[in-house]
Amino acid sequence: MTILVTGGAGYIGSHTVIQLLDDGADVVIADTLENSSAVVLDRIAELTGRRVPFEQVDVSDPQALDRLLTRYDVTEVIHFAGLKAVGESVEQPLRYYSHNLGSTLTLLQALDRHGIRRFVFSSSATVYGPDAAAPAQEDDPTSATNPYGWTKVMIEQMLRDLAAADDRWRIAILRYFNPVGAHPSGLIGEDPRGRPNNLLPFVTQVAVGRQNELTVFGDDYPTADGTGVRDFIHVEDLASGHVHALAHLRRTDEPVSTFNLGTGEGTSVRGLVTAFERASGHRIPVRVAPRRAGDVAVSYADSSKANDVLGWRARHGIDDICTDAWRWQRQNPLGYESLPARRRSARTQAPRRQRYPLLPALRLAGRAG
Ligand code: NAD
Ligand code: WQD
Predict the structure, then answer these.
(1) How far apart (Å, rounded) are the C-alpha atoms in residues 352 and 24?
(2) Any residues with Cβ below 6 Å from ligand 1, and which?
(3) Phi then psi dihedrals of residue 179, to 5 deg
(4) Which of 16, 189, 205, 277 sits CB 3.0–4.6 Å from 328 for a disulfide?
(5) pLDDT per residue over 47-70, tens digit each?
(6) Ranges of each domain in the chain
(7) Mutational pocket test of ligand 1: of 34, 68, 232, the residue with most ligand atoms within 8 Å of the beta carbon
(8) Is the pTM of this model over 0.70?
(9) What CATH number was assigned to the domain covering residues 2-337?
């Protein structure tokens, strides 16, 4: 019995793989590494004492999937692989529709051919759309404000149609709220490429000197301090939600079930910045700008269904989140590129200074932290 984790080298996937391995499961990762680093595989081995089989496979490639599914005795799948940048999806809608819908469709067809029908899908609170209620409940209407969000709405529909047509499937749709934080070791964490789109990675990069200041998108929302409110969920809690979801699929009779994974509590943008300053001892310079298009004022989960049915609940609050995110960023100021010199090859060491002119600032930040 092997669990196939697509996108398992990515941010949420890597944390989940560690928990699955710790749980004694056999895992194979399929990932193109287009938004992740092979270094994460070494870190997983370092943390778990197990080297997870890795296949550099695009899940849009049916032949490669057939080879993988023939080679490994896969019984269940967690499907993280996909593109996730909201702004990029607005600029490149066809790429997002083609990539996210195409890969999921190809994967589901391959699994069906191989008789593998336990499937966990990474959905998002973004499917509650611009008129999201707070707290959001699983049977609220779905919608989206951007092509990325629509791919999640459409894939969810694809999965419900599949489960309605063939009741051998056992599908869990997990709607994540705002995943943040890092493994408590500081060895695994979120490593966005380029300028971060999301709030906490931006804040941590300000703290290590990779960004000058945080732009707060709007302080005129109808919230206590005027900034947007979100349900920030520790990635370790999210990972544990997947372990619980797989256990649920093994015992349920329902072909498809949908769960919010959130804490049920909202924290404002300013509240998160204050918590991070407390956890890190760094002051985060802030500039207020107009609202960002497509943002809702308040988003948080009603996670009572996941609490009751999965027996899962989020354990970590905002202070743990900030402490762990800061440990990861402080230990890895350049993300997975920040390997200690003794571990880096000569080839990767040479161009490092050229590529990262901010390194002096990083050294200062490291001393302060
Ligand atoms: P990530 O980009 O860190 O991980 C995705 C991984 O999938 C990457 O390692 C990437 O290389 C790989 N990948 C992409 N396309 C692939 C393909 N066709 N075949 C094989 N591998 C491929 O993203 P993440 O933050 O870990 O998100 C995982 C999933 O959760 C995504 O589906 C995302 O949409 C969803 N999600 C993320 C968030 C968030 O804020 N991080 C919130 C809600 C939902
Ligand atoms: C949070 C708050 C911003 C950055 C996104 C996706 C969603 C899901 C999770 C994948 C908002 C404010 C942010 C910054 C800021 N991803 N902010 N300055 O937008 O709630 O959700 O990630 O499924 O689909 O939309 O998260 O972290 O981008 O923003 O003021 O530099 O922080 O306006 O109020 P969001 P976020």
Answers:
(1) 38
(2) 6-7, 9-13, 30-36, 58-60, 80-82, 84, 103, 122, 124, 176, 179
(3) -70, 130
(4) 189
(5) 999 999 999 999 999 999 999 999
(6) 2-337
(7) 34
(8) yes
(9) 3.40.50.720
